[in-house]
Amino acid sequence: MASTQWLTTEDLARHYRRGTHTVKAVDGVNIVIERGEFVAVVGASGSGKSTLLNLLAGLDTPTCGRIVVDNTALSTFNRRELATYRARTVGMVFQSFNLIGHHTALGNVEMALYFTETPRSKRRQLAMAMLERVGLSDRTDHRPADLSGGEQQRVALARALVKRPEVILADEPTGNLDQQNTEQIAHLLQRLNAEDNLTVIMVTHDADLARKCAHRTIRMHYGRLIKPNSADGGEAAS
Ligand SMILES: Nc1ncnc2c1ncn2[C@@H]1O[C@H](COP(=O)(O)OP(=O)(O)OP(=O)(O)O)[C@@H](O)[C@H]1O
Ligand SMILES: [Mg+2]
User: Which residue has its alpha carbon closest to ligand 1 atom 1?
Assistant: First the structure.
């Protein structure tokens, strides 16, 4: 595993104002993510996991604190740099797959390359190669409705990976899957992490899964990090 630092957060916070009430969804989080790490984020519903992931993805703006990527604060990125960061540096995967229903598996993966400079023929070739990588070369012409949940999630993963991101941010990628498909997705993420040095940050409710596939576990509680039990193999949090 490479040991260069990729991202740090400094007193990162995201508060939501609701009338007179403030929800501290993320509340003073300090983390360091190394390149090539596989980090699991666990915590009860509402503890701020998705909010944290969206901040790291550059999809949401902190109320205070900073995110520093490769020694540059995300807040100093201009529009173009931020767009590149969102589109190319990080790839996102969600619980609900978010595939386009009227496109085939191949079409869904190819679509991710529409707004890049990749020529059309190359787009198809790259999408095919990525579907093969996730074990779906015999399902390329299926529409999402004609795929199992696990297969749909593998298409979503291929769509995220086809742009060759450095990091995958996955928000409960196995939340809608049965045990067997959960293991398949987890195994795939582990392989990509080990073979391609892909950095993976995965939110999950499943503490067992986190323990099995991540190098360490970050535990959230009411927007803050808490020190995980030593049994989780995680490291001390802020
Ligand atoms: N747009 C918003 N406006 C107000 N409050 C919000 C908003 N988005 C999230 N919250 C609140 O912030 C807190 C953290 O939400 P978040 O979605 O990050 O939790 P989570 O840990 O991902 O939960 P789950 O496991 O259920 O997905 C919750 O209390 C939620 O109600
Ligand atoms: Mg969530």
Answer: 16
